[in-house]
């Protein structure tokens, strides 16, 4: 028994049917009421089992929507000198540390890219400094992987309010305590770079976010005098100008914020 | 080269009976009527594409492998002949011709592999008529893309019906045909890979697509 | 391009929550008897599997492992092309490929996460070390990724238990092969060098992926210990 015989078998069956073109079968809406069949022989294809139904479908591919609300951060792989221009020997404008004072992996906000005359890649980054954040260039090799966020954190010093935006839409708002006139919270563009939790210190509440913002006045503060966003054991003082520069939230608010705020989110502190 | 797959000889009459649970000769009309009774949709061209009863024979078997491989052989024979004729006519030039030469070798290798796997069960080589598609640079590209696409979709449709050994072998061929398809599209300036998924075709649909090319006389299909 | 054989990195780097190691272990030592069998050929099973949300409860453990393996490779490709497009260092055909193929790989990730549900492995963190920002390196790496993706799907096809999962997987496998030919064409290397494409087994594929060094631990930006902020 061979496939040749199989084909003859099926061909014989088709030949027994009266002829009608495929077109007329289609024109009659599929079923031919006169009982005629198309002359096309079924062939071996008819004998094959149908395909299995795929277990899942794939959605239509979507183009990337470039978003003006996107920011990119990079982890720091190795300590590096930050230079004014993307080339070796350019003026030093700052330093990039591998770790934050809290011991977490340091991250930086990244901007543009450039190649030097040797074809090496440099990246423009924003690093914490005083009196204000510094922007400069580091070799790509000093950085690790990139992360992208669509969120922005805004602290209004005048309104004593913190707002978290996602893709431009406000998704969280809370009253805050900010620095006194003597120890003001710095204004400017910064970013959230780490999160501390599971410590026992009621002064800071249940958890705290570290930022790249530094107090301009507490320059001798241990661990660099960085401004954090944290809870408090004095919610009665909020909203108010009460801190040494940190941004304080009620404990229930910082816990809620922690579910929504990714590390690397840019922070704007404005008047 | 994939491992040689030994396929056993099927008993076609028994197979047909098992498929249709019917002791009579099955005419195409009866096939359509059964399908409609089972809730199938008949589309233009008389191709039944949905609702065919899930056949007991969808459990894999060496006999079914033979049927499937023979269908694959029809497609590979057609492709091999298409490219061989293109090379022989030598009317194409440049990148198109280089493509045809390389792919002709690949498709010949696919045919040789299937012939070896099928042994005496192998179907006959079909008679083909490619018209100007093997000589006209504007007709060649789309024709090649169609033949490769139909092969990929037909293989994808039968993948779950093959035994695991046959599937492993077939998979080494499917992706090469898919490469060919993207390659020729790149050459002729069409999107090489527009879809997220290559949808499977039933054997009937694949046959229908092949019939539409006009490259094979109807009695071969 | 050859992916260098670095000293073997531990699977831990790839697999923070252990799911992938579990998946690989399961795949290596599974046997037929122990699994939930999808009732192949039954209309009810076929209908249920047509609703992907319900699928993961009916999938064999080894099929879950294979789908998670596929998802890991799709995560890698998604991240690679998406980052390349965002960085904007590419131009011409390579940029077009990154846009189109990136969109497809993102769709693959969505589909696999959807069918796996809670059993999906987490998205890893990647450091592409400038490769997405350098056109020649991008092209060479994309060739390697697409060839590898094709070989990886092919290597698993015959191990998939569910006919429905297999039907879905082969539909993606041939698309990866198209990508491979496309990027090779752009790279000026033969889109289809051989008449037969060989598959790759899971351990070999994962070894190659680890060797790239692209999959890294998520940077540790969290810590314990009381803050020393200004307060």
Question: Can you tag this structure with a few keywords?
Answer:
heterotrimer; A: 271 residues; mainly beta; eight-stranded mixed β-sheet; five-stranded antiparallel β-sheet; 3 helices; 17 strands; 37% strand; globular; B: 221 residues; two-stranded antiparallel sheet; 59% helix
Specify the helix fraction band of chain C. 55-70%
Distance between the termini of chain C: 53 Å
Secondary structure: number of strands of chain C: 3
Rounded mean pLDDT score of chain B: 81
Q: Specify the overall morphology of chain B.
A: globular
Strand sequence of the main sheet of chain B, in spatial order? 1-2
Shape of chain C: globular
Number of helices of chain C: 8
Taken in chain order, the helices and strands of chain B follow as HHEEHHHHH
Strand content of chain C: under 5%
User: CA-to-CA gap between the ends of chain B?
Assistant: 28 Å
The overall average pLDDT of chain C, rounded, is: 82
Low-confidence stretches of chain B: 8-57
Strand order, main sheet of chain C: write it out: 1-2
Question: From the alpha-carbon coordinates, what is the Rg of chain B to the nearest angstrom?
Answer: 18 Å
> What helical percentage do the residues of chain B reach?
55-70%
Task: Give a count of the beta strands of chain B, DSSP E runs of length 2 or more.
Answer: 2
pLDDT < 50 runs, ≥5 residues of chain C: 1-24, 28-53
Biggest pleated sheet of chain C = 2 strands, antiparallel
Q: Largest chain interface and its two residue counts? A: A-C, 65 and 57 residues
Q: What letter string, H or E per element, gives the SSE order of chain C?
A: HHHHHEHHHEE
């Amino acid at each position: 028994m061979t496939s040749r015989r199989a084909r003859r078998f099926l061909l014989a069956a088709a030949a027994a049917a009266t002829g009608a073109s495929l077109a007329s079968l289609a024109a009659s809406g599929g079923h031919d009421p006169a009982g005629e069949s198309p002359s096309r022989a079924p062939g071996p294809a008819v004998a094959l089992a149908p395909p299995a139904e795929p277990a899942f479908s794939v959605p239509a591919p979507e183009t990337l929507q470039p978003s003006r609300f996107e920011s990119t951060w990079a982890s720091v792989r190795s300590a590096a000198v930050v230079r004014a221009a993307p080339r070796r020997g350019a003026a030093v404008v700052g330093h990039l540390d591998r770790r934050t004072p809290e011991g977490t992996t340091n991250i930086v906000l990244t901007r543009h890219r450039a190649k030097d005359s040797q074809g090496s890649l440099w990246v423009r980054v924003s690093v914490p400094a005083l009196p204000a954040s510094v922007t400069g260039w580091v070799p790509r090799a000093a950085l690790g992987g990139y992360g992208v966020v669509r969120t922005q954190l805004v602290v209004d010093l005048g309104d004593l309010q913190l707002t978290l935006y996602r893709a431009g839409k406000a998704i969280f708002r809370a009253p805050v305590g900010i620095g006194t006139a003597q120890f003001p919270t710095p204004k400017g563009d910064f970013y959230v770079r780490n999160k501390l939790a599971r410590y026992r210190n009621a002064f800071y509440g249940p958890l705290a976010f570290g930022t790249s913002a530094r107090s301009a006045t507490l320059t001798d503060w241990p661990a660099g005098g960085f401004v954090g966003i944290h809870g408090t054991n004095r919610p009665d003082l909020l909203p108010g100008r009460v801190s040494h520069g940190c941004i304080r939230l009620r404990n229930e608010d910082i816990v809620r914020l922690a579910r929504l705020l990714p590390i690397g989110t840019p922070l704007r502190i404005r008047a | 080269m994939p491992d040689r797959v030994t396929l056993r000889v099927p008993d076609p009459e028994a197979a047909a009976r098992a498929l249709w649970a019917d002791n009579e000769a099955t005419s195409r009309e009866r096939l359509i009527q059964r399908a409609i009774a089972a809730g199938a949709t008949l589309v233009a061209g008389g191709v039944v594409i949905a609702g065919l009863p899930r056949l007991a024979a969808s459990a894999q078997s060496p006999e079914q492998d033979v049927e499937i491989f023979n269908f694959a052989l029809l497609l590979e024979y057609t492709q091999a002949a298409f490219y061989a004729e293109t090379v022989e006519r030598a009317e194409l030039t440049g990148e198109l011709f280089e493509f045809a030469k390389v792919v002709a070798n690949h498709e010949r290798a696919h045919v040789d592999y299937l012939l070896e796997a099928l042994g005496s069960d192998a179907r006959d080589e079909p008679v083909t008529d490619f018209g100007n598609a093997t000589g006209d640079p504007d007709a060649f590209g789309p024709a090649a893309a169609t033949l490769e696409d139909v092969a990929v979709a037909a293989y994808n449709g039968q993948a779950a019906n093959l035994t695991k050994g046959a599937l492993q072998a077939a998979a080494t061929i499917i992706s090469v045909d898919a490469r060919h398809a993207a390659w020729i599209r790149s050459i002729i300036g069409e999107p090489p890979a527009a879809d997220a998924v290559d949808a499977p075709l039933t054997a009937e649909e694949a046959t229908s697509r092949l019939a539409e090319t006009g490259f094979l006389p109807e009695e071969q299909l | 391009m050859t992916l260098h054989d670095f000293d073997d990195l531990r699977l831990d780097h790839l697999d923070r929550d252990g799911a992938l190691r579990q998946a690989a272990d399961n795949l290596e030592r599974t046997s037929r008897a122990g699994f939930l069998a999808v009732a192949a050929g039954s209309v009810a099973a076929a209908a249920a599997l047509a609703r992907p949300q319900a699928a993961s409860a009916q999938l064999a453990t080894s099929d879950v492992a294979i789908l998670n393996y596929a998802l890991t490779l799709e995560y890698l490709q998604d991240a690679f092309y998406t980052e390349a497009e965002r960085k904007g260092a590419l131009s011409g055909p390579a940029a077009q490929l990154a846009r189109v193929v990136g969109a497809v790989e993102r769709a693959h990730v969505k589909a696999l996460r959807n069918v796996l549900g809670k059993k999906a492995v987490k998205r890893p963190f990647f450091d592409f070390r400038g490769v997405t920002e350098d056109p020649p390196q991008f092209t060479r790496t994309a060739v390697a990724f697409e060839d590898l993706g094709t070989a990886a799907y092919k290597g698993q096809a015959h191990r998939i238990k569910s006919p429905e999962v297999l039907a879905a997987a082969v539909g993606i496998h041939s698309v990866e092969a198209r990508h491979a030919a496309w990027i090779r064409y752009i790279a000026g290397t033969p889109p289809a060098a051989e008449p037969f494409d060989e598959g790759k087994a899971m351990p070999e594929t994962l070894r190659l992926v680890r060797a790239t060094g692209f999959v890294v631990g998520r940077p540790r930006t969290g810590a314990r210990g009381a803050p020393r902020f200004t307060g």
